[in-house]
Specification:
By secondary structure, the protein is α+β, with helices and mostly antiparallel strands. It contains 5 helices and 17 strands. The strands form 4 sheets. Strands 2, 3, 5, 6, 7, 8, 10 and 11 form an 8-stranded antiparallel sheet that branches. Helix 1 runs antiparallel to helix 3.
Length: about 350
């Protein structure tokens, strides 16, 4: 059994117990309350494709045998009667949603000039081919198409008059635009997207190079805020469990393998020191002496008592009282009719 000062033993027990509670609380926090992380996730994904497919209807001419020509890069303007334009839109969502689309087809006759930095637009004039139209569905797929015929004679006549009458020489071309305003809604959330595609038909030269900016694709995402529980930190949790176990083991060892003793006061320490150093010179008495029986000579230090005892060849006797009411130790050296006397008093003990 290991002895510890009572106060120090209590401090150890309380401190280790508190540490064990803290380690247990930390382990509980790691495994039961690992925390949450906020972020976003895609609730719905929709892909849309807008496309313009065209063919050129030809006048009677000595070159083209077919009345309808398509999939060519270059066309001869004098033989071109009109363009057959087919505009289509497809929207595919990965979940059921409200899909709404407003679309229109229009033309822009554009005048541009070439500069060192590229080209600058001088003016433009709009022509409506297919007026604004709305369509919506509840589901995953929306498809629509708009078809228009575009004659080039009106635009060619206008550009020729500008050149001949007003000497306005610029680059002229007709831009045929398929414009879509898309909105997708699900569970109170909605996202919008504008999807535009076009073809350009030039009028500057008799050889036309029609350019097609389609198909045009886009993606619409509806996202939602999420709060996701973190996975417990297994390593950290195991560490807290090990520390908790170590604290419990230490606590059990201190409780069952140590004994608390009162801390020695100054009186007890001094008495123990005297017995350790001069124990072989001391002899105990069962009762104290009556001070009036002999000549009493008071001595202040134990060292002086030892010297006197050595000089006269006598033993040093002592009488000790260590009670709640009185704490003292008396030392005596007897020399015929004289008694050399030393007394040390201790602080009274408190009742427990």
């Amino acid at each position: 059994m290991i002895t510890l000062k009572r106060k120090m033993r209590s401090i150890f027990i309380i401190s280790i117990a508190l540490l064990a509670i803290a380690m247990a609380a930390c382990a509980v926090v790691v495994y039961v309350f690992p925390g949450y992380v906020t972020g976003t996730r895609t609730q719905l994904r929709a892909e849309s494709t807008a496309e313009i497919v065209y063919s050129v209807l030809m006048n009677d001419n000595p070159i083209y045998e077919d009345k309808i020509v398509s999939d060519e890069k270059y066309y001869l303007k004098p033989f071109t009667k009109y363009l057959d334009i087919d505009c289509s839109l497809t929207i595919n969502a990965d979940k059921d949603a409200l899909i709404e689309c407003t679309n229109q087809v229009y033309g822009l006759l554009i005048s541009e000039i070439t500069t060192e930095d590229g080209s600058d637009r001088v003016w433009e004039k709009r022509y409506d081919y297919a007026k604004e139209q709305a369509k919506d569905i509840e589901g995953t797929v929306l498809t629509l198409s708009r078809g228009v015929l575009v004659s080039l004679e009106e635009y060619e006549a206008l550009t020729n008059s500008l050149i001949e009458e007003y000497s306005i020489f610029t680059d002229y071309y007709l831009r045929i635009v398929f414009e879509n305003q898309i909105m997708i809604s699900k569970d109170g959330k909605s996202e919008t997207e504008q999807l535009i595609t076009y073809i350009d038909v030039p009028f500057t030269n008799n050889v036309m190079e029609i350019t097609n900016d389609s198909p045009m694709n886009s993606e619409i995402l509806i996202k939602e805020e999420i709060s996701q529980r973190n996975d417990p930190n297994e390593d950290l949790g195991f560490l807290f469990i090990v520390l908790f176990s170590a604290c419990i083991i230490c606590l059990l060892v201190i409780i069952f393998r140590t004994k608390g003793v009162d801390m020695q006061d100054k009186f007890t320490s001094e008495v123990e020191k005297i017995f350790k150093e001069y124990g072989n010179r001391l002899a105990g008495l069962t009762d104290t002496l009556a001070y009036q029986s002999s000549v009493m000579i008071s001595i202040d230090k134990i060292e002086d008592m030892v010297k006197i005892a050595d000089e006269i060849g006598q033993t040093i006797f002592y009488y000790q009282v260590d009670e709640t009411e009185e704490r003292k130790i008396e030392f005596y050296v007897f020399d015929e009719g004289r008694i050399y006397y030393l007394v040390m008093f201790g602080k009274l003990k408190e009742d427990k």
